[in-house]
Design brief:
A 6-stranded mixed beta sheet has the order 2-1-3-6-4-5. The protein contains 9 helices and 6 strands, in the order ααβαβαββααβαβαα. By secondary structure, the chain is of the alpha/beta class. The protein starts with a helix and ends with a helix. Bound molecules: zinc ion (ZN). The site of zinc ion has 7 residues, from loops.
Length: 250
């Protein structure tokens, strides 16, 4: 369905977009995440949101989004292996800025990028799950205050792949809708939506990419579910089925 995407990405990669600094960074990524260069299985980057002093949302029971996202990312990684190669953008409690998250994924020419959040990062409802993809470049949403504010952060001002995600909008939208269709039938997940969202993280990702908002941590019932390993495992299994479908339809 998306023939030519891989070829385009390889051509773009050869255009010299990567810097030596980013290569050094990616080297650390390999050692941190395992031997991702081995094998021919599709490489999926799972990105646990927040980390370190960036706590994300906080639940009324004291749960922190940065911990929930890392736990869920590890469960998702285990669920996706051995059918896929999986690497995380962070493996512990430390901050990784948006540029590094994007460069890790782009340098390795991964097939998919899935960022995990759980705090109403963008436009989430009270207790629903959401799967978000980057909007077409001509959308007015590019001027939203949330995006302008994030660009003021020096850590986010040097994204080398400005708007490169616009090449994958069709594929990312399809991925979001496929994941949504599988999450909707997942035990314990009441409502799921997929929508465009002008998220700064996504705009520099050179592959199909989505942000999965795993409920809303500040909602008490969501907080207890997000601390339930069995619930997260079931959700990861639903995501795996969606990812399987996405690759079958490519
Ligand atoms: Zn978040």
């Amino acid at each position: 369905m998306f023939k030519g995407i891989n070829d385009k990405r390889r051509r773009l990669k050869r255009c010299g977009l990567l810097t030596l600094a980013l290569l050094g960074l990616a080297g650390g990524f390999i050692s941190a995440a395992g031997a991702v260069a081995e094998g021919k299985k599709p490489l999926i980057i799972v990105d646990p949101g927040h980390g370190g002093h960036d706590l994300g949302a906080e639940g009324s029971g004291g749960s922190l989004e940065k911990n929930i996202t890392l736990r869920f990312a590890n469960i998702l990684k285990e669920t996706l292996q051995p059918a896929y190669r999986v690497a995380l953008t962070r493996t512990g409690d430390y901050r990784v800025n948006l540029e590094k998250r994007a460069s890790m994924a782009n340098h390795h020419a991964a097939e998919l990028f899935i960022s995990i959040h759980s705090g109403g990062f963008f436009r989430a409802g009270v207790d629903s799950w959401g799967v978000y993809y980057y909007p077409p470049k001509d959308r007015k949403s590019f001027d939203l205050p949330e995006i302008k504010e994030k660009r003021k952060d020096p850590d986010n001002s040097r994204l080398n792949w400005h708007h490169i995600q616009t090449k994958y909008i069709r594929a990312s939208k399809h991925l979001a809708e496929t994941l949504k269709s599988h999450l909707q039938g997942c035990p314990g997940i009441d409502r799921v939506k997929s929508a465009e969202a002008p998220l700064l993280l996504l705009e520099g990702i050179n592959m199909p990419a989505v942000i999965v908002e795993a409920g809303y941590l500040t909602h008490p019932s969501c907080e207890s579910r997000l601390n339930d390993t069995a619930y997260l495992s079931r959700a990861a299994e639903c995501l795996r089925r969606g990812i399987d479908d996405f690759f079958r339809e490519k």
